[in-house]
Amino acid sequence: MTRLQHVLTRLAGHTVLVVGDVMLDHFVIGSVDRISPEAPVPVVRFAREEYRLGGAANVAANLQALGGHAEVVGLVGDDAEAERLREELARVGAGTSGIVRDASRCTTRKTRVVTSRNQQVARIDYERDAEAAGEVATALIAQIARLAPSVQAIVVSDYLKGAVSQQVVSAAISTARQRGLPITIDPKVPHSAYYAGATVVTPNHHEAEAVTHMRMRTDADVAACAQRVREVTGCDNVLITRGEHGMWLHMPAGDTALPAEAREVSDVTGAGDTVIAALTLALAAGASLEDAARLANRAAGIVVGKFGPATVSIEELK
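-> structure tokens emitted (318 positions)
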């Protein structure tokens, strides 16, 4: 049995607290036969629609698919989409008691109009991205404190939709440190200063360049950039996801390049959710950071072959 196979056998039964921006991905799917006479846009003949979990909710779905259990802390509005989101999370087995309702905002939803060949025609975003503050932030922090005693790791999934305020992130990191839990961050550039003290931060190639004002062309460039990301964010370790170039893991003890494992790329939407879920669940199960990163790399190579936000199962990884 290889080290990664051994990690796979240990994933089940571990609980991860997912703190972040939950959202719904709504797909309106149809065929295109003509251009509208009213404007130079395609006319989509409706065939069907789908709802999928997005953002932090997709992280939770990936944790469940990998055999773990997710408890979710996030923000929704007082609307029908909030109920649909809760139902979808419950359907995959994730805990929803930590979700906070804020009547001043709508539940974040991305509606994509796509053709039957998975070509995107348009996207409509329903959101209010003001950062959680006051009573809402207090409620989110209270849910983190309530759920933390029952988890083995925490993940912060930041999509800049309001749930991940500086107060909320600080509470999550402080709680993880106090309890000796690994805490991982799927970051956004404007919040780079929020993440100090986290176990590992997972920027993609473009985010790493934006945070550091550096360009990555050679391995030496990547190593220097990863080191700078660690300095800027104040996180213990850095895992840069680099698309077709794989991943780069930077730890104080040294750097590891992980080649890409994708056989075929269909859609990279939500791939970062799969990466952070696999990484965090492996850490929750006691894996080393390097083995956790290798597992996440495998998972990413599978999920990019699927359309839209998707999950990876234990069987697929085996």
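The chain is about 35% helix and 25% strand.
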